[in-house]
Design goal:
Strand order of the largest sheet of chain A: 2-1-3-4
Helix content of chain B: under 10%
Low-confidence stretches of chain B: none
Order of helices and strands of chain A: EEHEE
Number of helices of chain B: 0
Oligomer: heterodimer
Largest sheet of chain A: 4 strands, antiparallel
Shape of chain A: globular
Radius of gyration of chain B: 41 Å
Low-confidence stretches of chain A: none
Shape of chain B: rod-shaped
Largest interface: A-B, 25 and 24 residues
Helix content of chain A: 10-25%
Mean pLDDT of chain A: 96
Number of strands of chain B: 13
Strand content of chain A: 25-35%
Chain lengths: 75, 213
């Protein structure tokens, strides 16, 4: 069962960070979800939900250093 | 008719004509002297058989002999495991027993049930800490940007020719414009916007009907 307190983050082609939210009904692990749902070849990182801002005022400006995306690459 | 006085000559075989009707009793028969060869086919009636408790059945047992099968319980049916009979629960449809695999996939539209079933649905909060409220066949949702989301299917669809409807509510409770785009067998993207700009929605929904993989 996926841990719904985790989030998967990666950088989209436009430079904006995308955040993947696991479903509580999903049988896959968060890492398996990342492998499946992160675009092919994109590096990702799994973080606690608390690490993602809930203030979306500047959502379009969310960025992350590529060097921090160390948990895997989308299949 | 020949009749004899005293001892009957042994050289003359006895025939039925020599025996008076009605004089031979059961006591005169030798033990085990009557076997199946003395029985005329189809001459043993049900009335001649030993009694059998109501509901029991006669079957061949492991020794090849007739045996009585015990009475089954209410609503049980007779089954066979390839060797013996037994009673088992009736194979009717119990609550919760109809799975997707059991639904008709008939090419005849009026018979097809599987295509009438919703393949994906979800409601999620697209504001603040984006979170899924409830879903079916959703592995995750993707938060791409303000008002731009993706629904990633847990089990992919058979093709991307599905019909999807999305809805959303803007801040203040007014309905947002939503649209689905970038359809694939594993993902359906949703754009939520008000007038000319994307906007987050506290309630984003998607309902999708299509072909299973």
């Amino acid at each position: 069962m996926a841990d719904i307190n985790k989030r998967i983050i990666y950088t989209q082609d436009n430079g904006v960070v995308a955040v993947i939210v696991p479903s509580k009904n999903e049988k896959r692990t968060v890492d398996e979800i990342a492998k499946k749902d992160v675009p092919t070849g994109k590096k990702y990182k799994i973080v606690d939900v608390s690490e993602v801002s809930s203030d979306r005022t500047f959502r379009h400006a969310w960025e992350i250093d590529e060097a921090e995306l160390t948990d895997g690459v989308g299949d | 008719m020949a009749k004899y006085l005293g001892n009957r000559p042994t050289a003359v075989p006895l025939t039925s004509a020599d025996i008076q009707d009605g004089v031979i009793t059961a006591a005169d028969l030798g033990a085990d002297s009557v076997d199946s060869s003395e029985l005329v086919d189809n001459s043993v009636t049900l009335a001649k058989m030993a009694g059998l408790a109501r509901g029991k059945l006669i079957y061949g047992d492991a020794s090849g002999d007739p045996a009585a099968l015990a009475v089954g319980a209410a609503d049980e049916v007779l089954t066979h495991d390839g060797t013996d009979f037994d009673w088992a629960a009736a194979g009717g449809v119990d609550d919760g027993d109809v799975t997707m695999a059991k639904l008709s996939t008939s090419g005849t539209e009026s018979d097809n049930v599987e295509n009438r079933v919703c393949k994906v649905w979800v409601q999620f909060n697209g504001t603040g800490t984006v979170a899924i409220q409830s879903d079916f066949n959703v592995g995750s949702i993707s938060d791409y940007d303000t008002g731009q989301y993706g629904v990633n299917f847990s089990t992919g669809l058979g093709d991307n020719d599905f019909a999807a409807v999305s809805g959303g509510v803007c801040a203040g409770g007014y309905g947002a414009n939503t649209r689905v785009n970038d359809l694939s067998t594993s993902l359906c993207k949703i754009d939520n916007y008000s007038t000319s700009s994307y906007t987050d929605s506290a309630i984003v929904t998607l309902v999708l009907m299509g072909n299973s993989a």
